[in-house]
Amino acid sequence: xxxxxxxxxxxxxxxxxxxxxxxxxxxxxxxxxxxxxxxxxxxxxxxxxxxxxxxxxxxxxxxxxxxxxxxxxxxxxxxxxxxxxxxxxxxxxxxxxxxxxxxxxxxxxxxxxxxxxxxxxxxxxxxxxxxxxxxxxxxxxxxxxxxxxxxxxxxxxxxxxxxxxxxxxxxxxxxxxxxxxxxxxxxxxxxxxxxxxxxxxxxxxxxxxxxxxxxxxxxx
Length: 220
What we know:
There is one protein chain. With 220 residues, the chain is mostly helical. It has helices at 17-25, 33-48, 52-55, 103-114, 138-151, 163-174, 179-186, 194-199, 208-215, and strands at residues 63-65, 69-73, 89-93. The protein is globular, with a radius of gyration of 18 Å. It has one domain (17-217): Intergrase catalytic core (hpI Integrase, Chain A). Helix 2 packs antiparallel against helix 4 (103-114), helix 2 crosses helix 5 and helix 2 (33-48) packs across helix 6. The protein has a 3-stranded antiparallel beta sheet.
C-alpha cells in the first residue's frame, strides 16, 4: 500500500513561531501551575523540535545543569529507538536576553513549583495540574500545547500540537541554521529526506512580506 499511496506531508505551510513567543512574552511573571505547565512543554517542543512522546519521558534523574545550559538525557525507549541508535540528549540554553522566554529558567521554576506536589518516587518531569498530581501522559501534554497554540492565535483546527516541529525546523532553516544542525537536533538523518519532504514548509501568511514593509512606516 505504501507504493500505491506514498506518505504525504500533513501541512502545505506552517505558522510563525513569533506568534507563540510573543504570546508567552506577554504573560504575567507569576503563573498558575496549569499555565506554567503549558508554557514549559510548548517552549520545550518548540526549541528542541522534539516529539511530545519524547518530552513526556523526561526524568528528573536525567536532568543536569551547567552555567550555560540544562542538559536532559532521554533514556526510555522512543519512536526512533533501535539497535545501535543513539538516544537523544536535549540541550536547553539559558537565554538572558529575554528572561520571560528562557526555557531553562522556566524549567527551574517548574521544578520548584512541583517539588512539594510530587510523590517521593515520582521521577518523570511533567505532572498533572490536579490532585493527586500523577505523571502527565503524552495526551495531556498534547492538550496543553494545543491550548497554548490557540491562545497565541494559531488555528488549531488546522495545526495540531505536533506542528511545533514543522514550525521550529522551518524557522531555523530560514534563520540560517545548517541542515546538519537541524537534523541532529530533531533526530533525523540528512540522507532520509524527512526534513525536505515533511517539515520544511513556507509560512502560511502570504501577506508577511507586505506587512513587514508596512511596519517600516512605524519607525521614527
